[in-house]
Amino acid sequence: MGITSGLVLYAVIWWMTLLCIAPLRLKTQADVGKVVPGTQSGSLEVHNLKPKMWITTGIATVIFAIAATIILSGWITIEDMDWWGRMDSTVPR
Asked: Beta-carbon neighbour count of residue 26 at 10 Å?
């Protein structure tokens, strides 16, 4: 895995983690009881985005470290995922 592919892998893991973390502990205008006229009652009032970004960074770093270890060690290779036998089997292992 090169530097560019490592950065791309980390970015994908980070954004997927953020999309999982972002909806947690949200407070909408309806929850708080202050709905601004002209807005939807489900609009966010408190989103706590900065702490969620730090949590996302920590979780994504751990997941990336696990994925990078598996990829760089060769425990799982692309040939291992060739379930239908479409790749050339003459690749030396």
From this structure: 14
The residues spanned by each domain of the chain are 3-31+42-76
Average pLDDT over the chain reads 87
pLDDT at 60 over 80: yes
Predicted pLDDT at 50: 92
CA nearest to 44, candidates 32, 24, 29, 34:
29
Q: How far apart are CA 9 and CA 44, in angstroms?
A: 30
Outline where the chain has alpha helix (H). 3-21, 29-32, 49-73
Q: Which residue has the tokens 């040939």?
A: 79
C-beta separation of 28 from 44 below 8 A: yes
